Amino acid sequence: MTDININSISKDDLPWIIEYDSSKCMLCGHCVAACSFGAIKVDVQKRKKVQAISNEQGFQIDEDQKAIPVIKQVIDAHSFCRGCGICTKVCPNGAIKVVRNRTEIFGTRYRANTAQSVKRGGRNNIHTEGRTLDKIKVGRISQMTDPSLDALRHTFDLRTNLGRVVSADKLNFEADSDNINGELKEKKQENLPVNTSIYPIMFSDMSIGALSPRMWEAIAIATAYLNEVKHIPIRMATGEGGIPDKLLRSKYLKYMILQIASGHFGWNRIINSMPYMQEDPAGILIKIGQGAKPGDGGLLMAEKNVKLIQEIRGVPKADLLSPPNHQGLYSIEESVQKMFLSMNCAFKFKVPVAIKVAASATSVSVYNNLLRDPYNIVGGFFIDGIAGGTGAAHEISLNHTGHPIVSKLRDCYLAAVHQGKQGQIPIFAGGGIGMNGNLAADAFKMICLGASGVFIGKLILQIAGCVGNDFGKCNGCNTGKCPIGITTQNPKLMQRLDVDRVAENIVNYICATDIELKKLLAPVGNSTLPIGRSDALVCVDKNVAERLNIQYAC
Question: Which phi and psi (to 5°) does residue 411 adopt?
């Protein structure tokens, strides 16, 4: 009898178990070739067939032993099955499938065997609280006394502001009391801060290092097509790490929001390209934190730091760490004076400069301080909740660090209302927007609660074909072995992604969302975005209703 090592990882410990039916298998090898994680392999099993054969003397026992090839699951702390199901998709006979192991203790075994923290991508996998946005309904419907609009025939203005919006007393016009028609005449006053009109949905910051170049290219193509052909002025944030020179010097830069994060990767190339830029970027986003793993630094592993990324970022092949904070900033006031002022000066005060922070107990304090900015140069406040996704993080941070987005968005908006400054610094909210598959409903509710717009990231990956979910399926973004080709730099895996098809899917989804937004605006009688119109909402949870200061319905 062989010895049993009870302390090693066993098949029963793994989060996903592969069920294999050898009678259906034709040994084509598609499943093994398609598994990017190396979680299955071709093996040999010895099989013994015993049968009783009758003869003149009675019965004779006949034994037949043979070795047959089979597909076997790999039991390993690093090459374990992530449950992506690609093997099932490529199997022509349905001989293999992955099944969730409800009694798994892999996290415990992994830590005990490797002395390492569990790392993965995706979103947090803990769903015990219930989703707040799903408890909120659009409850105020305009009827006979206040007619609703015709969603198919009415003209809607689905635009929001990016950039500082000054109060009326600071506008460059004043009433002429000597003119009976009350015409306005221009006041001689200092220049107003820059402000642009954009779509209220934005593609969130995902770097060209975290995504595959083909996936990043698909989002960029979709962004340009939506603007140029569909006339939907959507914007795309670049993420940490810069963008290719060709795009920096093209006319499509006007649709890109350049992010400067704590690693400052790629900014040498951006600065060197400034004299050759045909267009100004759509904005600058200073990233202080994100909803997933807030207060933690980003990490791009050396395996994903391929030649293209090295060239864009100007770094050698090594693990790239974005520090948990900007090393030169120590207070909100200092960030306004240093970074906001320097970024505005760099682009001659023609480009809105915004900040992105993680939702937390201190978010309102940050927003209040920015509202008091004496220079009027803070062009936007991006706030990201705990349900946001990430390409690589420690599981402990993903599941247990952060703040839900809805209440913190509401707190920030009401803080601005208290000062009479709502709308002056537009709030863009993210973190789980569109998680239930319906982006329009989530965006509409967030706008009614005070957001000027929302940003999405994980949803775009799902539109592209991501097989992961928020219940532990796949979540292997951090490994660089994405089976779809979305979050990998492996040339063979990247080829699985059809750039044109992904771009088309993203465009189609946004066009459908545009129709659905109008179908929500029309019943409440709004032809423009109902920013802060919480009276249009009701909530079926009394505690949530009281917390958000909206009507309770049962």
Answer: -60, -45
